[in-house]
Amino acid sequence: xxxxxxxxxxxxxxxxxxxxxxxxxxxxxxxxxxxxxxxxxxxxxxxxxxxxxxxxxxxxxxxxxxxxxxxxxxxxxxxxxxxxxxxxxxx
Length: 91
Hints:
Number of helices: 5
Number of strands: 0
Structural class: mainly alpha
Order of helices and strands: HHHHH
Shape: elongated
Number of domains: 1
Strand content: under 5%
Radius of gyration: 14 Å
Largest sheet: none
């Protein structure tokens, strides 16, 4: 039952198809749900980097660091993404 409820809450709090969570709902989440969502956002950020969706990856990583500034790998990935975004595309 708890798993079902967690999944329903998880689906409800997404604001759009990009998977970025609305701030209004963040404060209402339990710490366990926040950790689950942060882990999922991290996985999705890595997928976004691999697919060269750097802006979306940056948004996810910034969210992760807002929730958990010490999240393993997030700072490094954010630095990588910011460098990639600052580099002009090759012709």
